[in-house]
Amino acid sequence: MERPAQKSVPHASRLDGRALLKARFGLSSETAARAWPRWFARTFDVWWHTGLVATFLGFTLCRTSPGFLRWLETPFGWKLFGLTCIPAGLLLDAIVQAVAGNTPGKAMLGLRVVTADGRFPGLREIVGRNMGVWGAGFAFGLPAVSLLTMARQGLRLRRGEPASYDDDYFLVRARPVGWCRKTVFALAFIALFLVVVLLDAMDRQDSREMAAVLAASPYAWTNPDTGRQITVPPQWRYETFTDEDGAVLHVFTEHTEHAVVLLAREAHGDATIAQYSRALAERLANQAALPGGQLEEFRGKASWVVTGEEKEGAARVRLRVVEVHGNAWRVMAMQSPPAAYTDDLVEALEQGLWDTVTPRQGRSD
């Protein structure tokens, strides 16, 4: 973003601006901010501003964009996402500074950014400066390069020169602060640093687990009631449970836990498949809202199917019940948004599970 046409300010005007600041705010002990306090304040502000942006965008995109979720599965997905959030974090930083007059990091260390003529910069000016910080200070977030660019800016400050993104237009001034505020800042900085380290460790662990899953081979699963076998992709984790009625539940959980597919069998007695299915939907009412439902033929068998939503959450629920040799077999799939992220995996697994119960036409029974 461009600054106003007049970038440099005459020396006398800068002196007048500083005198104006002292007169307006009583900053008689104000001095030029040193390199390290500036670095700590800037790092603290960028961490928490970027963290807020990443949390909001990540939560929103993870619930709405299948492509974003697939991108996160790449080896450096989360790291690249974090880098792309830095400019948005710097924009939030500018908004906070324009509205509140300062940012938390600089406020705790007694720092303040002003123009050379003594004004508090407006939003447009702060955004332009922050974009300069992003490029000339952080090297667009590139880890190795940013160490060199930040060291270069620190050397400029030690020589009494302004940072390249300040030029002669901005001044970063410092007021004395007591040990109490310094201690509060130190504790806040350490806490935020530990959060960053923890999130990075979690990202590394997720990347290792993701790589292991994608590199794994499919496995064979045999339906213990029919003896038929299918091949299950490695993205599915298999477990068995027993419900309160004693029915065995075969549960397949997608590795990111965006989908769960359940297979179970029960004798439906004298009830028709429709009666049994509606009673089952009522039994599951505390887990999912399954209104309606309809009868239809499925692989030559009587079937009842219904689609609804998770009771406490936004997961899509699809339940199909099929009558096979006097038994009611059911496959229930629950998919967290965006459902399109797991649609193909769920559809393939559902069809495979039904193959172990009632094979499709053309296959041996």
Brief summary of the model shown:
The chain has ten helices and 13 strands.
Describe the structure.
This is RDD family protein. It comes from Massilia phyllostachyos. There is one protein chain. This protein is an alpha+beta fold and 365 residues long. Helix 2 crosses helix 4 and helix 2 crosses helix 8. 47% of the residues lie in helices and 21% in strands. The protein contains ten helices and 13 strands. It folds into two domains: 204 residues, no CATH class; 137 residues, Mog1/PsbP, alpha/beta/alpha sandwich (Protein Transport Mog1p, Chain A), CATH 3.40.1000. The strands form three sheets. Strands 6, 7, 8, 9, 10, 11, 12 and 13 form an eight-stranded antiparallel beta sheet that branches. It has a three-stranded antiparallel beta sheet with strand order 1-3-2.
Assembly form of the protein? single chain
User: Averaged pLDDT, please?
Assistant: 89
Helix content: 40-55%
Order of helices and strands: HEHHHHEHHEHEEEEEHEEEEEH
Number of H- or I-type helical stretches: 10
Q: Which structural category do the helix and sheet elements fall into?
A: alpha+beta
Please tally the β strands and state the result: 13
Report the span from N to C terminus.
69 Å
What is the strand content? 15-25%
Q: Are there runs of 5+ residues with pLDDT below 50, and where? A: 4-15, 21-27
| Radius of gyration (Å) | 31 Å
Main β-sheet, in a few words? 8 strands, antiparallel
Domain module tally: 2
Q: Sum up the overall morphology in one term.
A: elongated
Protein name: RDD family protein
Membrane topology: Multi-pass membrane protein
InterPro entries: RDD
Transmembrane segments: 46-64, 76-100, 131-151, 183-202
